[in-house]
Amino acid sequence: MIRSLQIKLVLSLSLLVVMLLVAAVMSMMEFRNMGDSVKGVLNNNFSSIEAAKRMMDALEREDSGLLLWIIGDREEGAQTIHSSQAIIRSALRDAEKNITETDEPRHISDITEGYDAYHASVLTILEEASPPAEAKETYDNETRLLFFRAKLAVNALLMLNQEQMYHQSEIIQERSRRAMMPAFISLVAAVLFALLLFYFIRIYFFRPVKQLTESIRDYYPEKGRLDGGIVTRDEFKQLEEEMNNLISRLLWRRDNHKE
Amino acid sequence: MVRTRVVIKYLGYILLFNALFLFIAALISLFQRESSLNALLFSAAMCAALGTFPYLFVEKVEELRFHEGLAISVLGWLLTCIMGMMPYYIWGGEFTLTNAFFESVSGFTTTGASILTDVEALPMGLLFWRSSTSFIGGVGIILFVLLVLPEKKGVQSSFYRAEVSDLSKMSFRTRSRHIVRIIVTVYFTLIITETILLKLLGMSFFDAVCHSLSTIATSGFSTRNQSIAAFNNARIEMVITLFMLLSSMHFGLIYATMTGKKHNIFTSRPSRMYMILVATGILLIAFQLFHEARYNLGDSFRYAAFQVVSLTSTTGLVTADTSLWPLFSIVVLIYFSFQCGMVGSTAGGIKFDRIYLFFHSVSKQLKLILHPNGIYTVKMDKRTIEHELELQIMVFIILYFFTFFVTALLLSLMGLDGVTAFSASFATLGNVGPGYGDVSSFGNYAAMPVAAKYLLSANMLLGRLEIMNIFALFMMSRRK
Measured between alpha carbons, how far is B319 from B229 in angstroms, rounded to an integer? Predict the structure, then answer.
């Protein structure tokens, strides 16, 4: 059992410091985790979403290029088709490098397959160089359907990553709550701690001071010993004992002086 | 006069005890690399810091007054429940502030009522903490603190008087200071034996430990969404049924049976009556289930036995949806939810011994009407029951039903349907867990209004502290 009031105070304040430190470390760790999650979302899902959007744009441009080619603007049409193809292949490579979800490889493979079929159909129209009416018929009967199939596959990849991003944002929201919680609870605990400390200071500091003051005020030499009513064995008990020693010495001197 | 600093000191001990289990749960989370690690570690640190603080200041106490023991007992439970919700609330998920408090109270009072719709989503560390709350609450945190308390006997006996009922002390037939050791010995023996048996029957070690803690503490918390039904294993169900039955019997009698004493669970009259009543309940329900072709004969007994023992022991683990059973079976089950286990066990509710003595008192009163000058006594296992204890039992039963009706009334005012309101009231007051309506066997308390969750939490605490202690504390504060 610790008897010194000084040690008691130092230890109790150290406890408070430790408690606040733990809360701070926990909050920092959670915030760091949150930062990692945000970075993860940007690196993984957002890149895939960007790649899917690039594919979608390029796919639509390729289709527009084909329609241009069919209505007679063959040079610009062909150019648009080739540039779009390069963009789609590049976006597909980006998506392949950035696989983070379980279903993602399947979706990328669907896009590759769908786009290959569509692009092959486009090239067939270009190679055959049929008159516009015939080319349009091939487009309506075959190419357009393949275009929609490829577009659906790209859309599925986009949806998958968007859903995952939404899910990740929920996790981040939860993490931010977890990061705040230790700070909030520490605040409540610190208030509780302060109240308890105040209570103990009142009991173990102010009360003995008051008791000793009152006993000194009511003291007269005939009483003999000074009774401060201190029950603890701390510095106040020592003070009471020393005061009694002082009284004894003073009384002894007074008695000897008389003699 | 209650010395506040002394009460604070012992509340600190209780927090330190909680901190120990939180650290163990944090260790599990650490090894499993789970998201609950920080929540558990932080809660443990908070409990340890707040628990150590009063220990630093308050000097050793020579004697504890009865009122102080009572205050520590009631406030200790309340504080434990509040601190116990911390890891849930910090972790988040389905745990809002209200839900975290409800789950914590439900665990410590061994009710087993849950707000979780997906238990399996919880990390292992939190699942362990959830089972630990039942373990701590099973025999009562005060009894655990008594076991390790470095204080004088004067302190221990005050705690003991506040925590263990007079009726419960009767069947121990030993000195008070041995009783705590007997209770804890039986508690640990049952938990260890059940864990080994469940492991041998194919459960994972973690599941076996959690379910043993849950069974022996009669809480009913499971690690699975479908409770014990998830294992679909008749041998596991048999083992759990046996241990639920044992946990609902007087631990003093179990200890006497284990040590070969004459006065044991087979020779004690209330104990024999209790077993006969449970067997009758099983037979009646099994017969009806078989007669109405709900199950074959074997399964009728299997499901009836599990559900009857689970409810009478106030465990609340389930293997079948009893709300789909015939009305007569439901009524029998409701009776067992009120009657519950025996005193001196971990079960909640009115307790069989009280009902046993209640009917003997009624019979005594009837005899006195016929023969006003006659001298009649009520006896339990050849021991005469004092008139004061008889009155105490009557008052307890009246208060129990009064609390039950008031809670049901308030719940219906909150917009709950009649079946849900009444069953939630008796299921929480008796610390049973599952009821009927929205809170049936496979249902939960998630959809309850916020006010209802707090009301039911108070009900669980009232039930666990056997009502009288809380009322006594209120009287004490009013007298001040």
Answer: 4
